[in-house]
Design a protein that fits this description.
Blueprint lengths: L1 H10 L2 H9 L17 E5 L5 E4 L3 E2 L7 E2 L8 E6 L6 E6 L5 E6 L9 E4 L4 E5 L17
Antiparallel strand pairs: 1-2, 1-9, 3-4, 4-8, 5-6, 6-7, 7-8
Length: 143
Amino acid sequence: MTNDKEKRLKELNRMQYEVTQNNGTEPPFQNEFWDHKEEGIYVDIISGKPLFSSLDKFDAHCGWPSFTKPLEDEEVAEKVDKSHGMVRTEVRSKTADSHLGHVFPDGPGPNGLRYCINSAALKFIPKDDLEKEGYGDLKHLFD
């Protein structure tokens, strides 16, 4: 992963690097996926690991893509974040150790969680491209 990660880091734009590597936050309502409605999955921009599904995406009116849950809990790590004078729960990708965003206890659904994720940390794979992009095992989500 180290060589792959180094290669992928060099391919990131400034915002993607700032968010994923320096725990940055992109501007609300001015990012690629905040209002994105196409069916598919969102993967870690660095590792390519599947993180979230459009089926779990909802409009939280916060300006960032929001999800009720990750695709697989094993790929998302939570960490206490005491920056900016508050205590929050940071969300990171386990494989690439990239900053993704934060999770808050104010979401809809049975778990009541809102995963507020930076678009800059994600790559979207449309459901019709899952097989072609190597995520064919997740096609069943959209049947």
